[in-house]
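residues and backbone:
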Amino acid sequence: MVTSRPLRIVYFGTPEFAVPALQRILGSRHEVAAVVSQPDRPKGRGQHRAPTPTKQVALAAGVDVRQPDRVRDEAFLRGLEALAPDLGVVAAYGKLLPDSLLRIPYLGLINVHASLLPRWRGAAPVHRAVIAGDADTGVTIMRIIQEMDAGATFAVRSRAIGPDETSPEVERDLASLGADLLIETLERIAEGRAVETPQDDTKATYAPKIERTEGAIDWTLPAPQIHNLVRGLQPWPLVSGRIGGRRVLIHRTAVTENHSSAPPASIVENRSDLAIVAGDGRVLRILQLQPEGRRVMTAREFLAGHQVETGTRIERA
């Protein structure tokens, strides 16, 4: 069915990544009938429940917010049906949506996905792209079907990944790119001009969620691989190691062209920064780190308060 009137939309999104797209829809000619977010979670040392980023935006705009514990709940589904939405828009909602929900909007649901599909389907596309050392990533607007991130695509926009960019830096930019691309796609859908292109499933790669254990890396890996892990495992769980028995979290590194004959994981410089020999013999410099329970600091600040001898090994933590 073709329509040129404004679309009535139910928006599914939870974290900061979902905020720019929601704000763009709220500022457009289209109507947000409700925002569906995951439930508020305890945060900080006091473990007080804090509203999700999308909930804060929705409430400020006077939009109805729904936070079901289970998206299969019959009362929740009946409530969505009563809204009579034209379209559902999803951006990092955080839960799989059942067929019973996908059938409610008569135009179906579309998703703002932070990768160049079919590469990096799944929960952590930005992190996996950075960890893999991809030179490019992007945003895809796709139709949601039951198979994860396998639906036809409406639009794609790419951007380069800088050699020292971290996952949060890339994700912030993709959130903005995705918001722009979403508005363009909504207009094409409303005007009946949208074209859906099937994905090539043979080229699909998968981006499983990040696990805490991934931060305890093997320091004998090649220097570029360690550097990519440092960039990609942010803001959580961060790459970790033990220096002189003290656990530290690594925030920034740099790969140099210097080589050393010292054993892998050895600290070979301890002046302005910490230089560590990687498994390929190249020297990786730690620029910023965080002793457990302390603030983030430069390597120089760390060395001013901690005696670290050359030849010390950084251990897995």
Remarks:
- The chain has a mean pLDDT of 96.
